[in-house]
Amino acid sequence: MNLPVRVALALTALPLLSLPTAPVGSVAQSPGLSGFADCMALRQWYVAAALPRVGPWGWNVPIVAYDTAVRGAAAAEAVGNSGTGTNVQETGVDEPDVAKTDGSLLVRTLGRRLVVVDVSGARPRELSRTRLPGNGTTDPELLLVGSTVLALATEGGEVGEVGDRTHVTRVDVTDPAHPVVLSHQRVDGSLVEAREYGDGTTRVVVATGLPELDFVRPSRTRTPREALRHNRAVVRATPVETWLPGLRQGDGRGRHPLLDCAAVLHPGASAGFGTLSVLTFAASDPRGLTATGILAEGDLAYSSAQRLYVGTLDGQWWDDVVLRGGGAGEVDDPPTTQVHAFALDGTGTRYVASGRVPGTVRDRWSFSEHDGVLRVATALGRGWLPRENAVLTLAERDGRLEVAGRLDGLGPREQIRSVRWLGDLAVVVTFRQVDPLYTLDLADPTAPRRLGALKIPGFSSYLHPLGDGLLLGLGEHADRRGRSLGGQAAVFDLSDLTRVRRAGSVRLGLSDRFAAAWETRAFTYLPDQRLVLAGVESWGRGGTRLVALHVGRAGTLRRVGSWEAGRWSAGDLRALPLGDGRVAMVRRGDHRVRLLELG
């Protein structure tokens, strides 16, 4: 379960330290989004949104049970890892990870240290360890762009997301034995997503929540009523600079505003509280970043090579659940997901459109952009078990994301377990007792249609195209009553999309699970060797291992190797291809790097 981050964004591409001050006014800038006449109006909005969230002990931060958050035809090309070794959602869009490689050098993190390892020889050779600045409570994750490493980490605040900061550190590894820290920046808020687009352009989505204010608490000399009165007065007196996210250079305490008041836009309806910002910069110089965003709740971001989408739950649903204390299944109206689209123009990020999708979107894999059309898989209904599921297509028209086509009736009373988009084809897996695997034709975005459905016990939590009309599913085997019987890998033959069949499968032990179910980066596919490398966690004996599976031409599947990896979570296990038939096996928190010869 992912707990929602209470956030907002501001929407315009602006230089950080030279922001225009011309007022936007109150005229809607695009459907559903409006600007503020001045900083006073923006401050009043923040105060009005914050007052219901403050109590005698400070901020009320409720826990809400809510889960937020490839191209080609049916015979889609096999998808391997990115050029830096990570299993990614979209070709050409790299994602941060705990380890990266260019085939000769491997960079990884051990706590707050950046470790550089030579993996060009028969044995790995550590070249250097560099202490990264800051006090991030999360292990940094890395992007590798040429000889530049970007380290991204979140420093936790005192209460939930209150006071969180995202650290962005740039390190030059031109001399891998002597890396040089070039810059260090801290942005108010938690890291949501980060992507690198092949040309060195990097976009980082940061969720800024409730600011740290000078609240008091009830005591022997202060009643709860008096504490509440004081805390509300603090909120009313807080200046706009405190509400807006800020940025600090290095470890200094100097704070600069990330956004000007004129840059901030908000939906017309209630959209919760906080600030979600999209930062855009070149890996060669993060100090030249621009910022863009929108005021809305949410922590769901997806990016193709052309568009970045931010999904947020409609604010009225949040008000019912968070402010009135209702459960996710107890509100009167079912939730709606707002979607905001940004065009990726080189080193710029430009807001282009907004729209609404009924229901809730499970995660970023439920989004896909293809030929300018956004496709979304969504769960309809209240609570954890939806009434049914649907796939919608949305097109950009005059600043709006308008529904162009819709297909309902997928998996009634079942949960979406996984989605994969293969050009004009979508594969959707739902589950309650059996696994309906649906194939959907999206060639005409205005008229999506169901082609076939394969119903078998169990379900696939992660889907991966193998080429030659084959699709791999990693998930769980189950009996006819829906009880799990352990992990399972299966290959599906998509040569006839109306009659999908399972071509091969491998079952694990009763307590074994594939880590790709919750961490898709713990998976690697080597197309040339037709090898699947997947992290496996054994809940019964508490161990983890890397398992190798070979995919036959006809879709048969057999186990060909296994390497023990200690007693840590299998979600921390990585297998990075080195391009010469070898793989570097790395685990978060383990100083060892193992080189595997796979032929």
TrEMBL record:
InterPro entries per the UniProt record, alphabetical: Beta_propeller_containing
Signal peptide boundaries: 1-18
Record keywords: Signal
Name of this chain's protein: Benzoate transporter
